Amino acid sequence: MNTSDTDYPAATIYPGPISGSGSDLPATPADVNPDNPPWGLWSALLTWIMSIVAVALVPNLLVLPYVVSHFRGATTPTRELLLADKTFMLLFVSGWLPAHLLTLALIWAVATRLGKFSIKEVFGWSWSSKFGIGASIGSAIGLYLLSMIIIGLVSTQETDLDRILRSSRTAALILAFIAVATAPLIEEMIYRGLLYSALQKITGQWPAVATVSVMFAGLHVLQYWPNAGVIGSITLLSVVLTVVRARTGRLLPCFVIHLVFNGVQSILIVIEPYLRSLIEHWRPQPTPGIILSFVRFLG
Q1: pTM of the predicted model, to two decimals?
Q2: Which of 80, 215, 276, 288 has CA 20 to 30 A from 122's CA?
Q3: Which of 21-35, 96-110, 260-274 has the highest average model confidence (pLDDT)?
Q4: DSSP state, 262?
Q5: C-alpha distances in Å from residue 252, one per residue of 2, 53, 184, 189
Q6: Is the pLDDT of residue 214 over 80?
């Protein structure tokens, strides 16, 4: 495991609130570190807003030709009708990938100021001596298990994401791919990267932790509403990720935690049909009832 010789705790570099004006931005690459970024709060907020717009707009533009041609001459399709349409759901989920790629290009432009700074240096894409890869993977697995307990204890209700997973096997696999290929990277660079780095210079460490945690969890409330268990687990994940960013001064541990957390869910999505077949094969036997209950709990 590679560790950096230098850590950058925000409280050490910036013990108190600092003005967020453009004059506070570092002028040279030597002045840059994750807690002294080359962007201000307004740039971070604008990038965050544009990322939301991209995820909302690109998938809708992708499905628009299909909706116009498929429902031509019919009454305006309802939300329930569209969610039940397998082709619509497949196209809509596929639209998240180009939306994420556009967002990634915007993040690069803002974070590096079009290549003037190293994206590795501005985000802290290295291991901290305080929190390495083992701690990151262990934290992710522990968080996932704790999240499953929260979900199991709280009554659950169907969400739009559940409908996507049920709409078709292809849509489910695309969603599983996006959940590990682009979502953790994009979300960590925006929330624990751009937003946290800019906020902690103005408010200090812990107000920034609270604000970013709420922003991340709040946006996911819409995605997982009205499932209180999943919303609770996402809130827990948000708080832990932001605290790790604050304490280590690095983004890489946050990314790995997020990646492993999503990766476990994606693996379950991929193997779910095979698990179901295996369970159905074993179901007449008395012993595997424990396994069936465990898999249902994970699912």
Answers
A1: 0.85
A2: 215
A3: 96-110
A4: H
A5: 12, 26, 11, 10
A6: yes
